Amino acid sequence: MRIGVNTLFLIPREVGGTEIYVRSVLPALQAIESDSEVVVFTNRENHDSFSASDRVLIPVDAHSRPRRVVAEQVVLPRAVRDTAIDVLYSPGYTCPLRCPCPQVVTIHDTQFLDYPEDFPWLSRMVQRVLVSRGARGAGAITTVSEFSRGRIAHHFGVPAEKIFVAHSALSGVFETPQPCIVEKPFLLYIANTYPHKNAARLVRAFDRIAEQIPHTLVLCGQPREGEPPPHPRVKRFNHIPYEEVVGLVQHADLLVFPSLYEGFGRPVVEAQEAGTRVIAARCASIPEIGGAGATYFEATSEENIAQAILDALKEGSYFRHEMIQAGKENARRFTWDACAQATMQAFRYAIENHGTV
Q1: N or C terminus: fewer CB in 10 A for the chain?
Q2: Helices (DSSP H) in 187-332: which residue ranges?
Q3: Domain 173-331, second-level architecture
Q4: 245 — phi, psi (to 5°)?
Q5: Backbone angles phi, psi at 94, to 5 degrees
Q6: Fold of 2-169+335-352
Q7: % helix, strand, coil for the chain, step of 5
Q8: Where are the domains of the chain?
Q9: pLDDT range class, residue 120, cuts 50, 70, 90
């Protein structure tokens, strides 16, 4: 099988967990299908980050979304034809609407439909057209949770058998000890501060209890439209090296994950892998992904978030140990081998059903 991979959406260090997903699943695919060949279609920003033996440059500046859309819809299909691809895999939500071979697209979530207020009007309309038409036209879809599978089927009206859950996974890096760059004790939030990530409500909840605990609250992620105002007990990091993020996770007393919407919720299982106690929102995919290794709270209530933090900090050592062990066990569910196996099933489904109505 000659597998083409569409990475025109991928701008290094700017697309978050989606970049981790792509860069991790590709070697896993090659490991389980050694007879298959993977050809990566790159853009100007990411071309040098892929190995020279398996890349084809599509000369587009991906920072320009209109140019990227045109390149994906016009230039990419020609390159696919010229390189004799058997199946085109687009792991970044959108794919060509017309393609000379079967296609598989990864739709990580339907946030732009479920939380449209988080997106500019034009961006939302473009996504609505491209993602919905791509979902209906692709031979198969992969996604990262059963929650997202249900939302995709609901919004786009595609049959459930066409949607394959290929969970995101972990690499073991959070088990390797790293130093901590802040003074302990602290609570940790990791996410860019989009409104649905709920950072502002978390800071207000923290303010309610700040005098009762010695902790600072560390926010780690890029500031976005939901950025909370400064607080004297809140320490703010934007982009920092990944090993420093790992150190923060390992040394936090709690990872507090208040997001109202997640297709997967990677920080939850990364913290579980690190052996860090996790409390998280009872929303979207988060309980599905966090399993029994986290405690859940009502994320629309500042009072509930504040109480969940206090309860977790006051819990006995035996219960805390049991929760951390449950988290570690839960994190072991997510492997790139399993993700690649599910993705390969989607490839075969798309090829076998290509041209059928």
Answers
A1: C
A2: 199-209, 242-251, 266-274, 286-290, 302-314, 317-331
A3: 3-Layer(aba) Sandwich (3.40)
A4: -60, -45
A5: -120, 160
A6: Rossmann fold (3.40.50)
A7: 50, 15, 35
A8: 2-169+335-352, 173-331
A9: confident
Is residue 293 within 8 A of residue 328, CB to CB? The reply is yes
The token duo for 243 is 């090993």
Helix axes 17-32, 336-352, angle to 10 degrees: 70
Global pTM reads 0.92
The residue among 192, 135, 191, 140 whose CA lies nearest residue 164 is 140
The amino acid present at 220, given as its one-letter code, is C
CA–CA distance, 38 with 306 (Å, rounded to integer):
48
Strand partners, 165: 143
And the tokens for 52? Answer: 């020279």
CA-closest candidate to residue 42, choices 25, 54, 33: 54
The number of beta carbons lying within 10 Å of the beta carbon of residue 79 is 18
* pLDDT of 33 higher than 70: yes
- Rounded Cα distance, 323 and 276, in Å: 9
Quick one: what percent of the chain has pLDDT higher than 90?
90
Query: pLDDT digits over 293-352, tens only?
Result: 999 999 999 999 999 999 999 999 999 999 999 999 999 999 999 999 999 999 999 999
CA distances from 304 to 51, 160, 171, 260, 296 (A): 48, 36, 33, 14, 10
Name the residue type at position 84. A
First-to-final CA distance of the chain:
23
CB 297 within 8 A of CB 330: no
How far apart, in whole angstroms, are the C-alpha atoms of residue 254 and residue 189? 9
Structure tokens at 173: 């890096």
Residues 190 and 90: their CA atoms lie apart, in Å, by 27
Instruction: Decide: residue 304, CB within 10 A, 0-12 exposed, 13-18 middle, 19+ buried.
Output: middle
Neighbours of 318 (CB within 10 A): 8
2-169+335-352 and 173-331 agree in CATH topology: yes
pLDDT at 357 over 60: no
Of 244, 235, 222, 257, residue with least CA distance to 185: 235
The 8-class DSSP code of residue 218 comes to: E
